[in-house]
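Good morning C.,

I know you're traveling, so I'll keep this short. The sequence:
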Amino acid sequence: MIEAYYVYMLATRKDGPIYIGITNDLHRRVFEHKTHAVKGFTAKYNVDRLVYFETFETPDSAIAREKQLKKWHRAWKVALIERDNPHWRDLAEEFVP
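The tokens, ready to paste straight into the viewer:
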């Protein structure tokens, strides 16, 4: 089995805060954000809606993309999210069978 790495964005709503993270287990990490299992920014501001993610084959490529996205202007991040998810729906709901 080939391991995948993910860069993801969480938000509360379109005009709210956007969090960018990286993980090798997107399901587990989103669950941790939703349950506030890890104290920090997302728990403090209740940022738990998965609105965007990308998949990578290597951790280095995922880390590079995460760093790139974190430097982007907010408008660019919003445009990226809305390209594939114009209604800002919670993509994590697709994880539930």
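Safe travels,
E.
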